Amino acid sequence: MRPIVLCRGEYLNDFLSKNTHEIRFRNCKGAEELGFAGKGLMLNSDYKSWTFNHHLFNQAILSPKFTDEAIDHTNKLFNELEIYWSKRSYSMAAYFDTLSNEKSDHQSARVINSVKLFQALRKLSYKANDVLQGMEFINQKLNAIIKSRRQEIEEKPLDEHLPHDMLTSMIIKNTLRDDNYIETGEATRPMTDTEIRVNILDGIFTGTYKIGNMLSFIVYYIAHNPDVKKKMLKEIDSIFQDDKMRPITKDDFYSLSYCEAIVKEVARIHPVIHLLTRYIDKPNKVAEYHWPADSLFLINVKSVHNNDDYWEEPNKFNPDRWIVKNFEPKKGSFLMFGGGLRLCPGRKLATIELVCLIALLFRKYEIDLVDMNTPIKTTNSGTMVLCVDLLVEIKPRN
Ligand code: HEM
């Protein structure tokens, strides 16, 4: 198959319009073998099934109540993260127990299960047999989690409050527990366990790596741009005053506009997804040319983001460009979350997590790079750019 690389925003109009070019990849045997074909979102090329999942995924993750829950969870995760720093280990319970001789205070069965699940998820980029075995294990674990949550929900009286996390929302959607329940047939049926499992896996695969890598890039760019850091700290301090402990609220999140500008500017200058893909299974017109069926398009995000036809001084790291009144990037020139039908459904969650993490980190800690002279080390993994390592020195801020 001949791939066609697109490097200009104006060639993307067809892909970024809301109702065309819904296929990301050609169907392949691997996706079938792993149980992803025709399921979930990321690798789903079956339009009817994708529409159903897309609708329910979006409802679960874009609701105002989910926003509250996401901010609450980011606060909790950050508090947990800090505990390990004081023990001189730099990660969460699962990693802590793997890397350290000391063990965390969490129930061991929970930690052991979580370590096993994430080790299996990481192994998915290894050899074919490992991948298949890993997938079987992951499916078993996720099925057990879904089953147990279903049971917990069923045991609760119908009028009892339920949390708004993605798993609960997907289980109750289009059932009597759903506040917006209307019985109208196939389009509004509840999700099966397999559908929920693949959507949760999509969330893990497509969400965690990007946020983790972007946070490393953010720390790197803040360290190299003292004026940006000063402005960011001014915003953070004006919101939290001297309080370095209170949880972040929804109002704080909406007030952290300079922190959000930093997130967008890092995504522009150093996109974690440097290639988007679209596939046509029938002859079609794209960028004013006619293409045969079975053509794959690679959208070169970095070249669009760094083009001076769309961006003033594109190589300058300048978050201020995002806070100019009425500023909107030119059409097709900012692709942090892709666009069109396959636009990232996790965009709000990603922004909440990154903005809140910047504020939680920098209001309390001074973060410096160990090596200010070497450029950040990255590696390409398919469509993603990953941070290889970034050594930092963290100490409490005065
Ligand atoms: C900084 C964080 C993130 C970035 C930069 C990002 C970026 C992207 C991009 C560029 C795409 C492809 C869009 C396209 O082809 O037009 C995508 C797709 C997707 N993202 Fe995100 N994403 C992030 C976080 C998340 C999170 C937290 C979730 C969910 C929990 C998520 C779920 C998805 C899913 C399910 C798709 C596939 C959508 C579909 O095919 O319909 N993403 N993301």
UniProtKB/TrEMBL annotation:
InterPro entries from the UniProt entry: Cyt_P450, Cyt_P450_CS, Cyt_P450_E_grp-I, Cyt_P450_sf, Cytochrome_P450_Monoox
Give a Pfam family name.
Answer: p450
Which family is this protein grouped under? Belongs to the cytochrome P450 family.
Among the GO biological process terms of this entry, one is: methylation
Residues holding heme: C344
Protein name in UniProt: Sterol 14-demethylase
Per its UniProt record, what Gene3D superfamilies does this chain match? Cytochrome P450
Write out the GO MF terms. Answer: heme binding; iron ion binding; methyltransferase activity; monooxygenase activity; oxidoreductase activity, acting on paired donors, with incorporation or reduction of molecular oxygen
Name its co-factor(s). Answer: heme
Which keywords annotate this record? Heme, Iron, Metal-binding, Methyltransferase, Monooxygenase, Oxidoreductase, Transferase
The secretion signal range is none
Domain of life of the organism in this record?
Eukaryota
Give the matching PROSITE patterns: CYTOCHROME_P450
